[in-house]
Design a protein that fits this description.
By secondary structure, the chain is mostly helical. It has two domains: 94 residues, no CATH class; 265 residues, Hydantoin permease. The strands form two sheets. The chain has a three-stranded antiparallel sheet. A three-stranded antiparallel sheet has the order 3-2-4. It starts with a strand and ends in a 6-residue tail after the last helix.
Length: 366
Amino acid sequence: MQRVGAVSGLLVEDEEDTALVPPSDMATQPLLSPDSDTKSNYNTDASSMSAWARQSGGSVAAGHPHEAWVVSESTYELDSTQGIEHSKLWNADLAPTTKAQRTWNTYHIASLWISMVVVITTYTLGGSFIAQGMTWWQAMLTILLGNTIVLIPLMLNAHAGTRYGVSFPVLCRSSFGISGAHVPAIARTIVLAGWFGIQTWIGGEALDVLVTTIWSGWSSVTGHEFIMFGLFWAIQVVIILRGVESIRVLESVAAPLLLIASALLLGWAVHAGGGFTRVLSSVELLREQPSNASFWTLFPSSLAAACSYWATLALGISDFTRYAESQRAQMVGQAIGLPLTMAAFSFIGVATTAATVVRHGHDSIT
């Protein structure tokens, strides 16, 4: 393990308080040779820290002799938090992740994306493009291209999270400043709150239909939909309160089950629709009325929709990748879990809906 003289932004103070901003120059100066197995008792030189802080327009906080450890060739770990626990800009959730907390490998990152992709909104995405006038393969290519494009900012923003172990609100301090970082953090939170509410309502509706199927009398219970909404909300909150490790475990178990369920759903669609070829030829039935719009007329807005689907998470992906064990894990995991899964599950949604129309008529989906 190689030790480096990283001041870590936790040590740098502006006129108001300590700022957690990842370092640059001092984070790359080795104090121990890469092949050495012994740890040095070296303490970061105070004069060097002060000089670096002055160049940054700040000062070194008294009593903050910190160091950082290189966890691997591309990630850093803060060695100590002594002396900063009482800063208003620091808490356990904002602190850089330690080596012990970096438990997400390639499978876990891919599982996270698979679990987030396999939802009702993805299921309906391809159908919405087809309803405008696209063919099924044009819709799938547009979705694949859009998610491949958004994969670029996802990987770039994820890089800092993995390298320094910092979350999105902390990462924003390097570009928006200490106070300004609240603006993008709150804006992103508002969007995510809306997304959480939509997904929770859909989940509650699914529970409501499931219980009604099992017990028909449930539909006569006053407020049954809101009860299931509250139940689904409570289940999610319990998981969230248990921390990110519970999310890692849940997604790791859920991802393969979701893939199996998706494959079974596609199998049903092919069987119920009278074969794969007939299902694909029946996709045109998803349009309520013929469309004369050309593909290139529909393509720009559809591609923008495909890109914006994960645009918010592309900004805050470091909230997850700060727990990745390496840059390779986050990059390969995201590449595996996002573009192809989005296109594949969108196709399953289109095929299943088309098979439903073939078997039960157009009124069954309206």
